[in-house]
Every structure is written in C-alpha cells, then in structure tokens.
Amino acid sequence: MKTWTTAERYRRLDAHSTAEYATLQAQAAACRWRQHYHIQPPAGLLNDPNGFCYDGENYHLFYQWFPLGAVHGLKYWRALESRNLVQFQDRGIAISPDSEYDSHGAYSGSAIAQEDGSLLIAYTGNHRTENWQRIPYQLTGRYDPKTGNFSRHLPPFMAGPPVGYTEHVRDPKIWQENGKLYTVLGAQRENRSGCALITENGGLLGELNTALTDFGYMWECPDFFTLNSKKVLIFSPQGLPALPDGRQANLYQSGYLIGDYDRKTRTLTHQNFAELDAGFDFYAPQTCAGKDGQRLLIAWLGMPDTAYPTDDNGWQGCLSLPRVLSIENGTLRQRPLPALEKLRSEKIENPTNLAAGELLLENPTAAPFSLALFAGSDCQTLLTFDGAALTLDRSKSGRLPEILLKKIPTGKNSHIRRLSARITQLQIYLDSSSLEIFINNGEAVMSARIFPPKNAYGILHSGAGQLDCWQYY
What we know:
Layout: H1 6-9, H2 18-29, E1 44-54, E2 59-66, E3 76-82, E4 89-95, E5 106-113, E6 119-128, E7 134-143, E8 150-159, E9 165-177, E10 180-189, E11 194-200, E12 203-207, E13 218-227, E14 230-238, E15 255-262, E16 267-270, E17 274-275, E18 283-289, E19 295-300, E20 306-307, E21 315-316, E22 323-328, E23 331-336, E24 344-348, E25 357-362, E26 369-375, E27 381-385, E28 389-393, E29 402-403, E30 416-420, E31 425-431, E32 434-439, E33 444-449, E34 458-463, E35 466-472
Parallel strand pairs: 1-21
Antiparallel strand pairs: 1-2, 2-3, 3-4, 5-6, 6-7, 7-8, 9-10, 10-11, 11-12, 13-14, 14-15, 15-16, 15-17, 18-19, 19-22, 20-29, 22-23, 24-35, 25-31, 25-35, 26-27, 26-34, 27-28, 28-30, 31-32, 32-33
C-alpha cells in the first residue's frame, strides 16, 4: 500500500501533465473490478455524492473526487448529467479548489436548480493555515450546466465555525422554502458530540433540536426534507458503538429520523434512529426531489478510513443505484428506480454465471434458501435465509476491504451481516465489484463491495424460491 505524503495528497491536478494523468486512467481502466453500470471515477478516489438535483428536464449529480490516487486528498467536484438516472454524461470538473476559501479541498455540498437554468450550489471550502489549522468556509456559487463554468458568491455565508463548535462544520444541504434559502449542516460541538445546524438566508438560526443529544462525535452529510407529510432527517453519525443485535456494525453509520417539525423552535419530534442500509459499504447519502415529486436517494458505496483492493490500481469508490423513497408503516422504504429496467438486455434461464445484471428471487412462503454469488472454485459471497433471518457473508468473497484505523472499535470489523426478517422477495443488482440487495420490495437494503478472483461470477441457488435473471449490457 502506497504511503502518501502531505505534499502528494494536496498536489493539484493541473500540476500533472496530460500524459501523467492518462497513465493513471489507463491503470484504472485495466483493473478487473471496473464496473459496468455503476458510477465510478476515471481514476483516483470518489466519495460523497454532491449537488443531486433536478431542473425539470435533467438530473444533475456531482461527486467528491481526488483525481490522483486512491486516497483522500485535495477534493474537486466532478459533474454528471442524466435525463433518466440510468445513462449519465460525464461533464468533467465542476468545482476546482482554487480559491483561498477552499485551498485544501472543495468539500461536500448540494445544489438547487434556478429559473435561468443554472444551479445554486452550497458547499464547504476546506482551508488550512500554515500551522495546519482547519478553517471551514460555507460557500455558495453559480454553476452553468451548459458551459461548465462555476463562479463563487463571496464572501462565504459562514466563515469558520460558530461559537460553541469545533472546526468540523460542513456539508450544507440547501433548499428553498417560503421564499427563503435554508441549509442544514453537519457539526461537532466543543464537547465532541455531533449535531446539525440550520441557517436561513445565510444566517445561523441554531441547532436542529432532536432527542439525540449525545449520539456520536460528529454528524456528516445531513439532509432534511418533507416526505408523505412527515419531516425526515438523514445523516451520517460517526462514533456510534456496535449493538448486540448486529446493528451499527459498520465503522460509521448512515440513517434517518422521521417525525414532526416545529419551525419556530427548530425541534424535530421523532422516532428512533434507523439505519438506511444493513450491508457493509454505504455512506453519505443525498436525496433530491425528482420527476413527479419522487424523493430519490444516491449514496457512496464505500466507507471512510477504509482501504479497498482497487487502491492497487489507483482508483476507489462508486455510487449506489438511485433509490425511490417512501414512508410506509412508519419506516423509510427504498425501492430501486424502475427505469433501471432499461439496462436489461436478455433474460437468462437457470443462471449459473453473471458479472453484471439483476436477479429476482420470489419466495412467497418465506421458506429457507441459499444463494451463492460471485462464486468460484474457492470463493463465494453467500446469502442464506434460515426462516428467521437473512445472512450476508462476504468473508470468503475474495479480497476484502481493510479498516485503516490503528484501533478498530469493538464489533466493527466483521464481514457477516444478519437481518431478522421474513424474506419473501429479493431484488439483487450485481456489478463486477458491487452488490445491492433490495429486500421485500424495499423494506430493507444490503449493499456491499465485492472483489472476487478473476472470472469468479458463478451463481448457485438451492432451497426455496423462483430465481429470474437479466444480464445488463
């Protein structure tokens, strides 16, 4: 594993020649784990989805990007555009960290469409002093999708952390309501507890008040919206312990609160925190209001402070498939975007091998079954249902991600996940190195990055259930 110096991590892309970067792209393209239909970087590291919005005609999606290797370094925003969220056009760099306010990275943020066709972007600029002190700047700017030009609005609407908070204030999610602009920001109090802040027209209103006064040491990537007449807060808390029942087993969590919001007191009266994904690799989700008012979600299929096998080829990370959200029986249900069916090329009877495609297992009697994916002579990713719980086991799937912390928190390094449920349906999306499993028509989801040996794409089904399969082009 390469050891990166600070100078290497913060070297600008334009300091490299075209030939140097072409070599990095060729190295990434030669990797056997490059995917067929998931969004992935041309080279370097992809992490949080940013700026996800819909302008009435096109969807706009950006992602955090360090171009020069599989490490968290100097972050840019890279832009994508799509009419259907199935086929995307890569628009290249949208925001370069080329001002004093984002000298050490254009960090995560969001966007809303404007009447003139431009996008209003809100993001965090990461600045370091000579003494390496971090100063977060909350910035807005105008992005023109037609030209790719971006111009900042100065000064920042928040310069440095507010009183009572550490340098960890970031990730503004912007929305417009009653003629005013609001953002919700992830933050850390001076007592090292996580929270969210609300701004109105650039001015700080205060904290978003919840019952979670001591819930991890930092909240990242918050998102706050109305769905089915309820308020939903999505966020990614860091520092939660693993629970005995198997929940919160990932290094960091992403989840949600559903409740009722009092705007005057900024108080969300909510249900218990629930995780969005029961798999391994899912973080920093962001939503947008899409066509016909659908609430859509896309996340990073990855985890901070983690090394992945593709690092050897100079790239890391991909985004999830789009998910359609609804509230049913007091929980957030996530279904795959129906338009993904456009990727189906042919239906395969009695599938035995699949590198990229979709599986549908119907099991109306909820009887036990076993399904091995990415199977080879000495490897498999195993899904088993014993009548009471679904187990996803990637411990023998091939090469495994590796947590980079010197001290891994208790219960955070297992490669087995167990979900108590009565399983009647699985809709599974496989790509060369990823797996997204939608359970019981979106009641739960399990996501994972999988890195099998070469040509290990076998499928072995035993027990109950009818298995259908479509290959994706």
